[in-house]
């Protein structure tokens, strides 16, 4: 779609009340007309309704410096800063070699330090995520073939500037640097920059380029609005390998280091990469189970093996029913799933039955498959935690646990056999990223579904008036990692549970009760007599609906859609918990 | 290739029937300077031509666009 079509469409978007909301600010020193409209349309498609603010023409610095500016009044959730190198570095861009090497280095470092100061002031005045577009690398130098022989030459200087940007963003959970040069590399310099538009309208990024930039920026919006996907569901025949296993047999399918087979090999490697960074994989295919498993376990070039999949549905049921079952078994919402299939009919069917699933039909030619993965922005998250990296192992262990469960009839003896151990501790610096992530991603067993950023978690952890604890769970099959969190606001005589959440994969083992008991015991220790609980119903948190009652809380009243509960400390329901607690 | 009128109608978000040689930023609200430039970019892609900056700046109304396209040897679709 062209920029003008985005602009026209953005005027007629339909907003519904169930849409997530997000406020986006754009700061730039040149014309970026259309960027806000592109993002409005793309966000709308993704179920997010956005408000945008674009700084006045070339006023970005004033707006950052003035703490009463419209920018701060707008109060964005995310702010994009798009500045060009000519503006920041002046004539240096044209005549860098008027300076000697040392002077060039000093100049670049000075300019960077000025820019960094501006960023720090912006950070001081906003809790929004900040995304800085790195500087565009120049493609021309009057030194020609000698250009890269100079230290702090033109290109190297800009590279150093960008590297210094990356450096300050590495340990900063608020600041992100967008690799603009990657986009230029992908689409081409002449595609992204059009001199005529630059001279006539001060558009330093072409209209076509603005559209592509908007698409790339969406990568930040998914995690910001807790819309990131968690699970990739894959077809098999003509998706992970070429041909139909049921017809062509294990020798006949195309997979391996020859022509077409390589495309499938590379596709699988891209998918394995996602799995290793925490995306859960599942199979949904129409095959005889044994045929499918023969390839997965025995084919010598198969990259994805049984242990990589948390759930395998290879059968003759319709694919929508299978998706639903995968969702139930893994406790992952349908709207956290991406389904990839080469059969457009299957795709359409699943999409019609479950519009909340993101469905991606594969192109005809397998050589284009990897591009599908490369263009997916929906798996982005703001920080990787140890839990993300270990997740695959956890789900494989889950399969084995389920196998044990089906052997043991009685739940209590099952729980005893699991030898569950939990660690419950106050959230410290080490856990704050994971704690924030859990508030962002936990939808089902979550009493209030309040979303917090790392900065918020830090405030809770530091404050005398709140208590924030996490739970880490281990059983004989492995370590689940940190999978639960509660936040309590302490008032004089009563404590109020602000948040209480647990990952669904550890439910059904009485761990939730052990966690609540810990909260209650803590209140008891500090002489608190009353504990207030609130349940805010959402579309997804039905699993948590009766939890407070099950713990012995009494229903008080319903107010503005919130259910209020009260517990007389000491009167909680005691139950036998086969969980060893370490504090 | 899209006909000129259709292109104008899509970019300026107006009815194709209402467009004539005298249509200009004076009498079409949506034809502001930014949309004017979008129009240039779309015309270039659509008719596979490159306008000079001077040609772009000389356009005051639809008939000027037609003349500019003719000057680039475009005979059809205008």
Low-confidence stretches of chain A: none
Number of continuous helical runs of chain B: 4
Helical run tally of chain A: 23
Name the largest protein-protein interface in this structure: A-B, 19 and 15 residues
Low-confidence stretches of chain B are: none
Largest sheet of chain B: none
Task: Give me the count of strands of chain B.
Answer: 0
Gap between N and C termini of chain B, in Å? 11 Å
- The CATH architecture term of the largest domain in chain A is 3-Layer(aba) Sandwich
Radius of gyration of chain A: 27 Å
Distance between the termini of chain A: 56 Å
Number of strands of chain A: 18
Q: Class of chain B in CATH?
A: Mainly Alpha
User: How are the strands of the largest sheet of chain A arranged?
Assistant: 16-17-15-14-13-12-11-18
What does this structure look like?
The complex is a heterodimer of chains A (583) and B (78). In chain A, the strands form three sheets. Chain A has an eight-stranded mixed beta sheet, sandwiched between helices. Chain A has three domains: 3-224, SGNH hydrolase (Rossmann fold), CATH 3.40.50; 231-375, HAD superfamily/HAD-like (Rossmann fold, 3-Layer(aba) Sandwich), CATH 3.40.50.1000; 399-582, Aminopeptidase (3-Layer(aba) Sandwich), CATH 3.40.630. Chain A is of the alpha/beta class. In chain A, helix 12 packs parallel to helix 14. Chain B is mostly helical. Chain B is globular, with a radius of gyration of 11 Å. The model of chain B has no long low-confidence stretch (mean pLDDT 89). Chain B has a single domain (4-71), classed as Orthogonal Bundle (Non-ribosomal Peptide Synthetase Peptidyl Carrier Protein, Chain A). The longest helix of chain B is centred in the middle third of the chain and has 15 residues, at 33-47. Chains A and B meet through helix 1 and helix 10 of A and helix 2 and helix 3 of B.
């Amino acid at each position: 779609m062209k920029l003008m079509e985005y602009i026209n469409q953005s005027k007629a978007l339909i907003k519904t009340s169930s849409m997530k909301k997000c406020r986006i600010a754009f700061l730039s020193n040149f014309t970026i007309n259309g960027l806000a409209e592109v993002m409005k349309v793309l966000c709308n498609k993704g179920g997010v309704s956005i408000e945008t603010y674009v700084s006045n023409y070339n006023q970005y610095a004033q707006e950052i410096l003035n703490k009463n500016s419209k920018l701060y009044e707008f109060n964005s959730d995310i702010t994009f800063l798009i500045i060009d190198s000519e503006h920041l570095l002046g004539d240096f861009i044209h005549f860098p070699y008027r300076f000697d090497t040392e002077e060039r280095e000093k100049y670049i470092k000075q300019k960077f330090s000025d820019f960094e100061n501006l960023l720090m002031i912006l950070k001081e005045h906003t809790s929004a995520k900040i995304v800085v577009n790195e500087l565009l690398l120049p493609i021309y130098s009057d030194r020609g073939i000698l250009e890269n022989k100079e230290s702090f030459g033109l290109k190297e200087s800009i590279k150093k500037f960008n590297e210094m940007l990356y450096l300050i963003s590495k340990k900063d959970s608020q600041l992100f640097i967008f690799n603009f040069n990657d986009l230029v590399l992908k689409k081409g310099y002449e595609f992204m920059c059009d001199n005529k538009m630059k001279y006539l309208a001060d558009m330093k990024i072409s209209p076509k380029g603005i559209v592509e930039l908007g698409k790339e920026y969406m990568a930040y919006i998914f995690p910001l609005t807790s819309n990131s996907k968690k699970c990739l569901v894959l077809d098999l025949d003509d998706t992970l390998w070429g041909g139909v296993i049921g017809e062509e047999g294990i020798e006949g399918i195309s997979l391996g280091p020859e022509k077409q087979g390589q495309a499938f090999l590379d596709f699988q490697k891209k998918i394995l990469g996602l799995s290793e960074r925490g995306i859960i994989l599942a199979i949904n295919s129409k095959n005889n189970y044994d045929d499918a498993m023969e390839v997965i376990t025995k084919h010598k070039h198969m990259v994805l093996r049984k242990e990589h999949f948390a759930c395998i549905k290879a059968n003759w049921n319709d694919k929508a029913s299978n998706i639903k079952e995968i969702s139930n078994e893994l406790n992952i919402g349908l709207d956290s799933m991406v389904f990839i299939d080469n059969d457009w009919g299957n795709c359409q069917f699943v999409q019609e039955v479950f519009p909340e699933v993101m469905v991606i039909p594969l192109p005809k030619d397998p050589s284009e498959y990897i591009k599908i993965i490369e263009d997916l922005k929906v798996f982005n998250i703001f920080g990787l935690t140890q839990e993300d990296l270990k997740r695959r192992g956890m789900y494989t262990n889950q399969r084995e646990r389920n196998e044990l469960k089906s052997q043991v009839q009685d739940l209590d003896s099952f729980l005893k056999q699991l030898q569950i151990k939990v660690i419950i501790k106050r959230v410290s610096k080490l856990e704050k990223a994971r704690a924030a992530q859990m508030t962002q991603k936990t939808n089902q067993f979550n009493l209030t579904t309040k979303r917090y950023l790392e900065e918020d978690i830090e405030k809770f952890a530091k404050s005398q008036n709140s208590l924030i604890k996490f739970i880490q769970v281990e059983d004989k099959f492995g370590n689940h990692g940190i999978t639960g969190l509660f936040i309590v606001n302490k008032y004089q005589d009563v404590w109020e549970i602000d948040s209480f959440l647990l990952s669904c994969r550890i439910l059904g083992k009485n761990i939730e009760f052990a966690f609540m008991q810990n909260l209650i015991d803590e209140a008891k220790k500090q002489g608190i007599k009353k504990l207030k609980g609130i349940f805010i119903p959402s579309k997804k948190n039905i699993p948590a609906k009766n939890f407070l009652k099950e713990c012995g809380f009494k229903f008080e009243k319903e107010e503005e859609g919130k259910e209020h509960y009260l517990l007389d400390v000491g009167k909680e329901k005691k139950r036998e918990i086969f969980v060893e607690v370490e504090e | 290739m899209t006909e000129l009128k259709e292109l104008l109608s899509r970019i300026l978000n107006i009815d194709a029937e209402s467009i004539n040689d005298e249509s200009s930023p004076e009498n079409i609200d949506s034809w502001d300077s930014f949309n004017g430039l979008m129009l240039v970019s779309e015309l270039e892609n659509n008719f596979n031509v490159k306008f000079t900056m001077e040609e772009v700046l000389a356009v005051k109304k639809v008939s000027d666009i037609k003349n500019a396209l003719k000057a680039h040897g475009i005979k059809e679709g205008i």
